[in-house]
Design brief:
Elements: E1 20-24, E2 28-32, E3 36-41, E4 46-47, E5 50-51, H1 59-74, E6 100-104, E7 107-108, E8 111-118, H2 121-130, E9 132-133, E10 136-137, E11 147-153, E12 156-157, E13 165-166, H3 169-176, H4 178-200, E14 204-216, E15 219-223, E16 232-236, H5 252-259, H6 274-292
Antiparallel strand pairs: 1-2, 2-3, 3-6, 4-5, 7-14, 8-11, 8-12, 8-14, 9-10, 12-13, 14-15, 14-16
Length: 296
Amino acid sequence: MGMMNKEDSALLDVDIPGLTKSKTGKVREIFDLGNRLLIVATDRISAFDCILPVGIPRKGEVLTAISRFWFEKLSSICPNHVVPEPPPIPVRGGPLEKRSMLVKKTKPFAVECVVRGYLAGSGWKEYQKDGRVCGIPLPKGLKESSELPEPIFTPSTKAEAGHDENISFEEAAKIVGGSTAEKLRDDSLRIYKQARDYARGRGIIIADTKFEFGLADGKILLIDEVLTPDSSRFWPADQYQPGRGQPSFDKQFVRDYLETLDWDKKPPAPTLPPEIVAKTRDKYLEAYERLTGQTL
């Protein structure tokens, strides 16, 4: 393999001189600017809850651009945390600007707002056990990847380490309060339906997605990332076929490759061959291009 050019190198770590890093997530770095936060998306990728030693070039750029696109598109139905100002001086005009988002500081709710329009992942596993997902009874006879009669709100708790735990609506209401839980549910379902219909017209099925909300000045805002291939299952509509797992727009190649290895899914994670990295990068870029009709 020849030398990778600059475009092809993945950004795995970010430090910005003069700015205080307050949190490092699996993919994003968060810098504290007082009443604002700067969120910078790296090219890190995780699979089976392990961060891999290689990144996917441009992934952070794609995630930021997709989130920006949706925040703008959905702002009429739900206010969000994006601050429409240029990023701080150390980032402005540099290679990090496309990966950065300046946002209001909020107090995040301790519940992840998951909406499922199709039966996949942990939802499919639960359904096979007792015909329910997060306590919600579903019609009999659904197959893997079946579209649900109506999207369902299936909250989970945020786990600092490992997997999020699916919880019932009642449990979510205990954590955030009844009326807040109802508002989060209604907003989540409304946002999902609008996004699902838009994406369908662009050849993408949004099977399920995870929203986060936070409180600032008494207002509930949509925060974090929104409707990206990292927080959602995106399926190509033209290949959709219930009764099996679907090809997807995100980590499919990565997961499929890792499944072929003799790896116990515990850290340290194995590395990825260049062709898997390149295919995955192209999938992320394609998701952006299909959704927005623009090239990055």
